[in-house]
Amino acid sequence: MNGQDEEVARLRATVNCATILERIGTGWQLDQSESSRKALKYRRGPGEILIVNHEGRGWFDPFTDAKGDIFDLVQRLDPDLNFGQVRQRLRTIASIGFTYPESENRPARRASTALPAERWAARRQLRRGSAVWRYLTEVRCLPETVLKAAAAADAVREGPYASAWFAHRDHGGALTGFEMRGPDFRGFNADGGKTLFRFTGGTRPFTRLAIFEAPIDALSMAAFEKIRCDTIYVATTGGMGPDTIIALNDLFADLASQPDPIVAICTDNDNPGERHAQRLVALIVATNLRWERIKPPGGAKDWNQFLQIQAGKGGERK
Fold this sequence. Notes:
Blueprint: H1 3-14, H2 17-23, E1 29-30, E2 40-43, E3 49-53, E4 58-60, E5 67-68, H3 70-77, H4 83-91, H5 102-105, H6 116-122, E6 124-125, H7 131-139, H8 144-152, E7 156-158, E8 164-169, E9 175-182, E10 185-188, E11 196-200, E12 208-212, H9 215-224, E13 231-235, H10 242-256, E14 262-265, H11 271-285, E15 290-293, H12 303-310
Parallel strand pairs: 12-13, 12-14, 14-15
Antiparallel strand pairs: 1-2, 2-3, 3-4, 4-5, 6-7, 7-8, 8-9, 8-11, 9-10, 11-13
């Protein structure tokens, strides 16, 4: 190994992608509420997200196919740099630390040491009249028929502080993690894995797959459509990681075996939603499935805002 190769290997071993975003990047900030030790989420402006993974050695953009190592990240931040200039930048931050999520520095509570499935099982099932039920019906304007169906499917449970927990499951039905959404809180359990939130009004085989960003939007469109029995409503909870893409491809394979199948892309009606839709289109085109883009009527940002407007409310922002 020559000297240049040795330096490249040393930089890969000593520089963390999180340090690059904090020291070289402009405006990137750690989203502590949605980060874990395995995946640090950095934001910069509306719709700009980068995830640092592989213990800081890798990164990816959840809205595109962009990913790479420390050298690729520096060039993404400043495309005009050549490889030698990238090395010079990296030398200045070698061995410098970065901001860990605050939750990683706190003493671990007993509940956080349980597996996601154990934590899920310990929570109450969604029940009429509870604080969570009132939040979903009164604030989010979801009808009782949809909530009863979601409860029966064990897709939603009750978390603390009036927060609803939305299950993410793999293709076999095993719970991998859960999104937590309440009046004053939004996040994903740090020890869980994002696959897909799933809700359907019937049983397999289904002929239509509707894809959303948020579980509440999936339930909102299901309410608008009176829970179509031919449709499975799924949500990615933001961007798509490898496990979410695997889960989607499994559903695409199921769908392709049915007569006249179609995928409905129902992501938000804004720029990040359009970028998310474009990435979904790239996945769908590879399967030769038909697809359509469905936006909420009336210029609403998302399907839950549309539901709230229908109910005479202004529409809560996510």
